[in-house]
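Thread: quick sanity check before group meeting

JM: Hey all, I'm pulling together slides for Thursday and realized we never actually wrote out the predicted structure for the chain we discussed last week. Dropping the sequence here so it's in one place. If anyone has concerns about the input, flag it before I start.
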Amino acid sequence: MAKKSASPYSGLPPRAFWRSGVQERSPLDPGDIYTPRFPVTRDMKIATAGSCFAQHVGRALRGAGLDVLDAEPLPAAVDDATANKYGYRLYSARYGNIYTARQLRQLWEEANGEFAPAEPVWEHKGRYFDALRPSVEPEGLPDVEAVRGHRAGHLRAVMEAYSAADLFVFTFGLTEAWIHTETGTVYPTAPGTIAGQFDPERWSFKNYDVVEILEDFETFRSALKTVNPNVKFLITVSPVPLTATASGQHVEVATCYSKSVLRAVCGMLLERHDDIDYFPSFELITSLNARGVYYEPNQRNVSSQGVNTAMSTFLNAHGLRPKNPSAKEDTDEGEEVVCEEILLEAFAR
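JM (edit): ok, ran it. Output follows.
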């Protein structure tokens, strides 16, 4: 006869209890917050995408000597500031920030010839911009044909990087977006902020829910695995709050909704698929144990201390170390603010 346990909680590790897992933990000690589902190793080819916070993940992985793919490289002689201004060295292809799962799915389907975005070229003061990544050419291009040519090369690079990846890293950033009302095409910025003109008859605000976001990532995952069957996924949620919202809610309420939805999606994906791991950067940065020091004084931008803590926690869990342990993660917080404020500028008008 099986021996009865005094409690179903008997034998659980300290990390399972609030007192030992949080209350008794030293301030700023991340504790036993992350146990990898599968190893991340230096022989993996890694593709990165997502919101602004995902840029820190890519830099940390490169700093640890991992093979982070770059399908649209620049010569090493070009300094990082110049490269970043034009969308280079941020992710595995030059798509800029991918804030929503719908944007990610749309990009992959376009690269495969299964989707044609509505109004793909926007104009501003006689210059022309790729509406799906308007920030990568800050001054625009001379004509529509140049934009289309640049995009065709970019889509080939996306296919190359994603098809070669052993690990695909994606940071979920936002639920809110602007879409082309008739077709559902989603854009990373609101029309009229960088280029184009906002017309309420053509564009509308969209706040994706759990069902929609889960379906979008599931669809992307399945499609990618048809051409890259062995790829694994590492997902995170950006800890950066909204800078503004068009939902009608207070911005703190809207932020809580958005991050809760994204975190729920990540939890569901983790439960459904053994090839998906979740790194709790969101939980680490927003933890009560951090006493708020992982944010800058504006209480929105993640501080260099927060980024370094999150990235070192990830690397340590996988037995990885930066090539230069004394080097700090280069966190350009000003750039990160601009990234999401461009997207949301029209919301606050």
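AS: nice. The chain has one domain: 34-348. Residues 325-338, 340-349 have pLDDT under 50 and may be disordered.
JM: adding both to the slides.
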